[in-house]
Amino acid sequence: MTPNEGLGAHIRRLRRAAGLSQEALARPNLSPSYISLLEAGKRLPSQEVLAQLAERLGCTPRDLTGVIPEPDSVNLEIELSYAQLALRDGDSRTALDAFTALRAKIPAGEERKGLGFATELGIAQCLEQLGQLEQAVRGFESLLERCGEQGRGVLDRLGVAMLLCRCYRALGEVSRAVDVAERALADADAAGLPPTVAQLELLSALIGVYCERGDLHRANFLAGEAMSRAKLMDDRRELGGAYWTAGTALHRRGRSGEALELVRKAVALFAEVDDARALARVRNAQAMVLLHADDPSPETARALLEQSAATLRALGGGLDVVDAETALGRAEVMLGRPEQAIRHAETALGLLGPDHPLERARVHLVLAAAHLLQDDHEAAQAAYGRGALLLEAAEAGRQAAFAWAELGEILEKSGESERAVWAYRRAY
Question: Which long-range contacts (CB under 8 A, 24 or more apart) does 319-323 make?
Fold first, then answer.
């Protein structure tokens, strides 16, 4: 590999990581054909061009020229690509084995450079997908600290912050998730970074966290920001993601009609791009809005969820499969089919580990509703109590209040007035 080819390959990797097309990277005064020749190693950029590219990619010119792969590293780069492909395909165990083997082959002194960073990032992502969230958090925290120590680009920091935020949310540590995401976004804004995929993904994660915490005003504001930035990118996938996020925020505010309109737009946009996992996830979101709308459509929601669940299982969807199974249970409750609802809920619980309090809480609420349909008040009370305690422990105050209120209704219907008052007090 010549120095020109190494530089071109590195620019291509950074461009793809940023979610930029060759045309977008070329703006404002280069041409897409020049970027294509540059990435192919057929052009050597001037210092002025390097400065422009670095600004668009959220790094420094030295970051672009200082990590050109040596010929001896080509095989390691191939191994890295194989591990990343396995991770994208949902084969987390194979990917973890490949990343771990690669870590042992990285030469001394190179562990903290580009290849080492990508390898450690892959290992942490695999741990997250395998449900080992505490270990994943330690990995992401170390990588985020390394970003600061090594002066890595803003895009690296945004990407790691998004993954760490997502893990903290799954662990129920909502305050930590907010802190990590807000600081990373503020750093990106201070650096004058133009809208990127990494920025929008972190915004989406943060909006979800604020919804969990019940701060719907902040969630709605950030959803508007995400939509504005996505439109500037002229990227259909990211615009779809912004519609999806904004729809979720509106749904949490009780504006289901507007939410459904935005989520349908998101489904249409994702159907145009080659991303089966994202399309299945946004269909999950559409189904959830249909289930909670003023005029719910559980039959339609169930059909969407069965389609998305099948796709996600084939792709190794992890928590996304859990979300689909939980929502299917909710749909079956609304259709008056408690046995099927319990089956979906138990499937979801079987896929979850102890590190997922929010998800387990939601499943217990579905179980409680199903038991209530069967007139099994004792089982319903136990399930609602477990769900509410998990939500409360996870700082998800708004959802916990809802669960305590529902528990109060069950206790009241069961003739246990004193305990019903206690539950209502916990809700309010």
Answer: 319/170, 319/356, 319/359, 320/277, 320/280, 320/281, 320/284, 321/351, 322/348, 322/351, 322/352, 322/356, 322/359, 322/363, 323/284, 323/359
Over the stretch 38-48, which tens digit does the pLDDT of each residue have?
A: 888 777 777 77
* Helix pair angle (92-105, 114-129), 10° resolution: 150
Span 211-256, pLDDT tens digits: 777 787 888 888 888 878 777 766 677 777 777 777 777 777 777 7
Count CB neighbours of 201 within 10 A: 22
Structure tokens at 303: 């059909």
Query: To which H or E segment does residue 26 belong?
Result: helix 22-26
Nearest CA to 355 out of 326, 318, 401 is that of 318
Provide the 10 A C-beta neighbour count for residue 425.
Answer: 10
Q: How far apart are CA 250 and CA 254, in angstroms?
A: 6
Determine if the peptide bond prior to 194 is cis (ω within 30°): no
* All structural domains of the chain with their residue ranges: 3-69, 278-351, 352-428
| Contact status, residue 207 vs residue 219, Cβ threshold 8 Å | yes
CATH 3.40.50.360 for the 3-69 domain, yes or no: no
Domain 352-428's class? mainly alpha
Give CA–CA dist 113/332, Å, rounded: 51
Question: Which 3 state secondary structure label does DSSP give 103?
Answer: helix
Separation CA 11–CA 14 (nearest Å):
5
Alpha carbon of 71 to those of 87, 389, 399: distances in Å? 25, 56, 55
Give strand ranges (E) for 61-140. none
- State which of 194-203, 315-324, 349-358, 366-375 shows the largest mean pLDDT: 366-375
Report how far residue 288's alpha carbon sits from residue 139's, in angstroms, rounded to the nearest whole number.
32
Distance of alpha carbon 198 from the chain centroid: 11
pTM here is 0.60
Cis peptide upstream of residue 28 (ω within 30 degrees of 0): yes
Q: Give the residue from 213, 136, 130, 206 showing the smallest Cα distance to 394.
A: 213
Q: Which amino acid is at 394?
A: A
**Long-range contacts made by residues 105-109, C-beta under 8 angstroms, separation at least 24?**
105/76, 105/79, 106/76
